[in-house]
């Protein structure tokens, strides 16, 4: 499933970096912290690898 916004993609990238040990988990907050706990590394990589072109800054609440 691709990211729906730039913010979601960036949060997934931060969570992925923490999961890989590149940044400390304590540096995460908000959506990236919950993504770290609830998603696998593969899912995070898929979200973080989404193309940004045409994505809104923030996803509309549904």
Q: What would you say this structure looks like, in words?
A:
It is a single chain. This protein has 62 residues and is an all-alpha fold. The chain has a domain of 43 residues. It has 3 helices and no strands. Helix 1 packs across helix 2 and helix 1 packs antiparallel against helix 3. The protein is globular, with a radius of gyration of 11 Å.
Summarize the entry for a quick read:
By secondary structure, this protein is an all-alpha fold. Helices cover 48% and strands 0% of the residues.
Could you give a short account of the major beta sheet?
none
H-E string:
HHH
Q: Percent of residues in beta strands?
A: under 5%
The level of helicity is 40-55%
Distance between the termini: 17 Å
Overall mean pLDDT: 87
Computed CA radius of gyration, to the nearest angstrom: 11 Å
Q: Which runs of at least 5 residues are low in confidence (pLDDT < 50)?
A: none
Return the structural class: mainly alpha
Total strands: the figure is 0
Count of helices? Answer: 3
Q: How is the topology of this model organized?
A:
Elements: H1 6-19, H2 31-38, H3 41-48
Key phrases:
3 helices, 62 residues
């Amino acid at each position: 499933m691709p990211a729906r916004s730039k913010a979601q993609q960036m949060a997934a990238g931060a969570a992925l970096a923490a999961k890989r040990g590149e940044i400390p988990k304590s540096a995460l907050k908000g959506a990236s912290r919950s993504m770290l706990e609830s998603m696998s590394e593969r899912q995070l990589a898929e979200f973080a690898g989404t193309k940004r072109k045409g994505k809104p800054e923030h996803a509309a609440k549904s």
